[in-house]
Amino acid sequence: MNNMIWxxxxxxxxxxxxxxxxxxxxxxxxxxxxxxxxxxxxxxxLRDADIYRWALNDLxxxxxxxxxxxxxxxxxxxxxxxxxVTSGLSTEDFVVALxxxxxxxxxxxxxxxxxxxxxxxxxxxxxxxAVTLQAGDRVLLMVDQAKDLMRRAxxxxxxxxxxxxxxxxxxxxxxxxxxxxxxxxxxxxxxxKIVPAEWVQANVENVLDTxxxxxxxxxxxxxxxxxxENQVDVALVEIKDIVGDSDIYDLVYEEVMDPILANTxxxxxxxxxxxxxxxxxxxxxxxxxxxxxxxxxxxxxVIDSVGDYVTMKTDELRVDIDLRDSKNxxxxxxxxxxxxxxxxxxxxxxxxxxxxxxxIVTVGIDSLPECMPSDARVEQxxxxxxxxxxxxxxxxxxxxxxxxxxxxxxxxxxDLENALAKAxxxxxxxxxxxxxxxxxxxxxxxxxxxxxxLAEFIDPEAADRLDDIxxxxxxxxxxxxxxxxxxxxxxxxxxxLDDYDTSREWFQRARSWxxxxxxxxxxLMLIIAFLGxxxxxxxxxxxxxxxxxxxxxxxxxFGPVFGAxxxxxxxxxxxxxxLRAEALEEIEVADNFSRTQLMASNKLxxxxxxxxxxxxxxxxxxxxxxxxxGLIILGVAxxxxxxxxxARQWGLLD
Length: 654
Prior knowledge:
Blueprint: H1 2-34, H2 39-48, H3 51-68, H4 72-75, H5 83-86, H6 91-101, H7 104-122, E1 130-133, H8 136-152, H9 155-172, H10 184-194, H11 197-215, E2 223-226, H12 229-245, H13 248-265, E3 268-270, E4 276-278, H14 279-289, H15 292-310, E5 318-322, H16 324-347, H17 354-363, H18 376-402, E6 408-412, H19 413-422, H20 426-441, E7 443-446, H21 447-457, H22 462-475, E8 477-480, H23 481-491, H24 494-512, H25 519-532, H26 536-568, H27 576-586, H28 594-638, H29 640-649
Antiparallel strand pairs: 1-8, 2-7, 3-4, 5-6
């Protein structure tokens, strides 16, 4: 009989091994159920990692620091400096603005909603779900933060350095209207006076305030309007200063009067007796006698007229310059020129032959002589005849030269266009016409222009996507279980949806009947109990002993042993620090934002380490609990007879 009982007890050993395996499987499955199949587990894990505050503060700080180091040429080949650096704002300024616009509490609430609703649906806890995202209010906060950053940043100087200055430098390479000689530095300085920082800031904020209600769907139309009327007056004063620094004679004569006179006079005006006055000599005479005050007045007249034209106060450019006084003052200069030229004609006459001298003496001279005699007496006769001809030449200055010069010179936009075209700067005239329209009626941009630009520069469907975004910002975004089911059917088919529903049912059963995993353990313990014991006390003791031993092994493996492994490693097996180093070495880190990527990778590994340690700790905790339960049961079994005796003594048993 004793041999039989020992044989039965030996047979409990393989059942004990099975008990260990099934107990380990049961504990692991229960821990999986309590962690990975529980949506709250992911929420709690992210909370414990302080992931939201970390991402929006620590990670954002490193990311902005690296963004400030980003090569400007990789942002835009025309940039000389990184805009984040030239803005004058610190990394802290950007991080604070980010947290004001997207506080970590809001991000946490959003993420946890996504984890909770679909998570419980996937595990069969919920029969439906709906995730709703409202982002319109976030856009309003982002705009407020953007405006605040622009107020505190050196955005105005950044605008000029990166956009205005290159544009101006390109423009001044070509001939400017009215022949104005202008350096890029002087042009930029003038632009700063015409569009000061306050004006730019106010208009940028106006644009944002106009676009924001449209973007979030509060209105269906918008119109941005920039009024340049006040800036034009400043611009005209600045132009006059620029002209004052230039040669005003060049402006009035070379750019306005000379081209018109050239068309009117031709190359020269022919006078009697072989004398001609060139167009250059005429304009030079007019220029020489013009008082500087008069020239300055004409320059101001030109600028004022151009200003009225540019601002669309007039429909055409027309400058009338009165030349009557200038003609009167230039007469003496032109007469002197004509007299000198006639004298040169006489000086250039060849010497007379004897026959020509005889004819001069006998017939006389009534026109320009053919020659000049060397005989002094005859020469006096010739010169006496030439004197009246000189008077004819002088009178011709009035009748032929000055009469050809108009009393009023009119300069129009056609003259301006022709001047720029001859200088190879016709594009600047087109630019002037565009600026004229903008300044005259203001610059407007509305929702129709925006949609047209999207269709032209992106693709025809871009406007529809814009409306979708506006709808999302206005009404929010809702994703339901039906959307998920439709997606599965569209992508994978009905069979996949059926498999998905079956999985949800099994997950739900696993959550609801989680303790069923102990059923094989209970059966094995019952078998061990009846094999190892002959009385109820011994049977309970044998089952409890195997439970204690199995639980102890599991506890020590997942507790102290795993802890030692994770801290220092075992033999050739690396610890977590070694695994972290190996993982980081295998991660491909780009040159840009490398510290950000490494920081994010480290955080991910930290979370994974926490998950692994937590899982092992959970398994060890469950094993420890079962071990304690087993010890209690074992203690009861060992004291079974004593307990029975007490029960009989107290009258609880017969």
